[in-house]
Amino acid sequence: MQEQIQRRFKLPDGTEQRIDICVQTSQSHIGNNAKDYRYWGDNRLLKIEKHDLYNSLKLRQFKQNMRQEALDFIRELIKKYGKNGIYLWDPYLNAKDLLETVFFSQYANSPIKALTGLKIAPQENETSSYQADLANEINQAILQTGWLNLTFINADRSKVGDFHDRFIIFPQAIDEPVRAWSLGTSVNSLGKSHHIIQEVEDGQIIADVFEEMWEQSINDENNILWKSKNN
C-alpha cells in the first residue's frame, strides 16, 4: 500500500516543480572513429552497439546548449537507480545544483548525500554567513519537503585536501550492485560545453572513496552546510 505525497519546490527561475513521492507503508565500449571500409557489416554493428549503449544509460554525450538534456539525463538516472540513495560528489556543488538534480528524487526518505569542496574563508563569520545564505536559498525554494532526506556537507580540506572528482553514485542494495557515473564536468556546467557522462566499471571503488571522504568530513558539524529537518 502506498501513500501519495508530493515534494514541491521552486527552481532558480521561479518554476514550481511537483514530484510525486512513493511512500511504502509497512565495460563501456566506445566505437573507434576510424572507419573500416572493408566490411559494411562492421559499421552496421557499430551503429547498433552505439544505439544499445545510448539506450542502456551507460554513456551520453553532451555539447554546447544542451543544458536541459543533460539535466534530464541525470534525473532519468535518479529515477531508475535512486531508490536506495544518491551520492552527489562535485567540488563546486551549490544549492542551485541540488535543486536541479537530487530534489527530483521520487523516493521517500531515500538518503541523499551531497559533497562539495567549496573553499570557504576560515573566518567564522564568513563561514556562518555562507551557510546561512545557502540554507536560506534552499529553504526559500522548498514549498513542501515530501520526505526529503538530504545532507549537504563541505569536505574537510584539512583531512581530505582538494579534490576534482565529479560523480553521481547510487549505493548498493541487497540484490543490486553500486552504480556510479562520471559526470565529466561540474553540475553547474552540465550541457554547457562538450562533456561525456559515463558509467564507471567498478562503482564500489568510487563509492568507498566517497564514503571515506564523507566520514572524515561529517564528524565536524561546521562542515554541514544543510540538512533535512527529518534526518
TrEMBL record:
Origin superkingdom: Bacteria
Name of the protein in its database record: Uncharacterized protein
